[in-house]
Automatic annotation (TrEMBL):
SMART domains: LRR_RI
GO annotation (BP), single: nucleocytoplasmic transport
Keyword Nucleus: no
Alphabetically ordered keywords of this record: GTPase activation, Leucine-rich repeat, Repeat
Species this chain originates from: Adineta steineri
Pfam family, one: LRR_6
Cellular component aspect of the GO annotation: cytosol; nucleus; perinuclear region of cytoplasm
InterPro entries in the record: Leu-rich_rpt (IPR001611), LRR_dom_sf (IPR032675), RanGap (IPR027038)
Protein name: Uncharacterized protein
Tree of life domain: Eukaryota
GO molecular function: GTPase activator activity; small GTPase binding
């Protein structure tokens, strides 16, 4: 490694490069006030880092380094552009110091990618068309939406680029849309770094690229990223055909019910995702959508705990439909979810002929004698359920009669909980289970 050096030191360096088998060289500073440098043609350099240089110096080095695969430039001073130099010879191109604030300077970087200079003039490659471009680093520049559009159009069909770093630029949501649309069909790009740009969809567009193309990723954490319903559409589209992702963390974002619907519709045919965490989002269907994914795809799931999640009867209907085809779950806790009589009806329909379900907790769900009748009818036929908790609901003597009649034919149920949970005068007016001697008689007759 050499800091800023005079011509004598450079001459020594170049002599070493020319006469040895040096493969890696790092020059912190070149004197870019002097464009003319003597660079040896015969060198074995494969990797080189330049702290700063002029575009002319960059061209001389590249033209005369036939084995170079990696070139890192910290600050390339571009004044007059010469489009004859191609960057196809690079494996990694890092221009962390270049200021790319308009199409002209982007042109200087991107048009050379397609130049026939190396193939036609230098005739470098005998066994392949060109060495592959894998990484482009354009971070910490001033690229805006127009630059992103140009970049997207140029690289959208690139077949070898796997990493594109555009972090710390000035790309807004329009630019994010250009990038997303351009790379939607690209199957090669794995990592698109858009951190610290102006657009609010940076994280989403980056994640969508990775979900589509990274065949090794099984877990993705996107919690607390202010992802909205609009942003989650990008994710939903990318997840549609994903076959490797098993865990997706989206908790504590800003996803509402519209976003939940996008995810639910898209993931209906997905058989790979096992866990989708939507906790802490404003949408009321978070728990249901997460549970639906788990019920459909997790073949080891036997216990489903969903207590105190405000599921309601609509969410219960969604769960019930899934339970009709599930033969793995044996226990479900829906306590404190306000499912009401309608929710009880949905569950009763789903469990009518289920042979694996053994335990159901419906504590504190505002179920009256109407809902109990649906459950009682289900118990007449079900031969698997051994325990039902109906405590702290709104069951009266008529509900007890329905249960008593059902139990006369049911020989499987071993535990039935009908506790009211309120023992003091302060809660005497609450509408919880109130079963009198008459209701107790109905139950007693069934137990004889």
């Amino acid at each position: 490694m050499y800091e800023r050096a005079d011509n004598t030191v450079f001459s020594t360096i170049f002599l070493i490069v020319a006469q040895t088998k040096l493969q890696k060289l790092r020059l912190i500073h070149l004197d870019y006030t002097t464009n003319q440098i003597a660079w040896p043609i015969q060198s074995t350099l494969e990797q080189m880092t330049i702290g700063d240089c002029s575009y002319h110096q960059y061209r001389i080095i590249l033209c005369n380094s036939l084995g170079l695969r990696t070139l890192v430039i910290g600050d390339c001073i571009i004044d007059n552009i010469d489009p004859t130099v191609s960057s196809y010879a690079l494996t990694t191109f890092d221009s962390t110091g270049e200021k790319l604030n308009n199409i002209t300077t982007l042109d200087s970087l991107l048009l050379p990618f397609q130049s026939p200079f190396w193939l036609n003039n230098k005739k470098w490659f005998a066994t392949c068309d060109y060495l592959t471009l894998i990484t482009v680093d354009l971070s910490r520049n001033e690229i805006g939406d127009i630059g992103a559009q140009y970049l997207a159009a140029t690289l959208q069909n690139h077949q070898t680029l796997t990493n594109l770093d555009l972090s710390y630029n000035r790309i807004g949501n329009n630019g994010m849309q250009y990038l997303n649309d351009a790379f939607k069909e690209n199957k090669t790009l794995i990592k698109l770094n858009l951190k610290h740009n102006l657009g609010s969809y940076c994280i989403i567009v980056s994640a969508s690229i990775q979900i589509r193309n990274d065949k090794a990723i099984t877990k993705l954490n996107l919690m607390t990223n202010k992802i909205s319903d609009t942003g989650v559409q990008y994710l939903a589209d990318a997840l549609q055909n994903n076959k490797v992702l098993t865990i997706l963390e989206l908790s504590y974002n800003q996803i509402g019910n519209n976003g939940m619907q996008y995810l639910s519709d898209t993931l209906k045919e997905n058989k790979t995702l096992l866990e989708l965490n939507l906790k802490g989002n404003p949408g009321s269907y978070c728990t249901i959508v997460s549970a639906a994914i788990q019920i459909r795809n997790d073949k080891t799931l036997t216990i489903l705990k969903l207590s105190m999640n405000q599921i309601g009867h609509i969410g219960t209907k969604y769960l019930s439909d899934l339970l009709q085809t599930n033969q793995m779950i044996t226990m479900m806790d829906l306590s404190g979810n306000h499912i009401g009589d309608t929710g009880a009806q949905h569950l009763a329909n789903a469990l009518q002929n289920n042979i694996t379900f053994t335990e159901l907790n419906l504590w504190h769900n505002e179920i009256s004698h109407i809902g109990v009748q649906y459950l009682a009818d289900m118990l007449r036929n079900n031969t698997a359920i051994t325990s039902i908790d109906l405590s702290k609901n709104q069951i009266r003597d008529s509900g007890a009669k329905y249960l008593g009649d059902a139990l006369q034919n049911n020989k499987t149920l071993t535990k039935l909980i009908l506790d009211s949970y309120y023992y003091d005068d302060d809660h005497a007016d609450k509408k919880t289970n109130i079963i009198s001697d008459i209701g107790a008689q109905f139950l007693a007759d069934a137990l004889q």
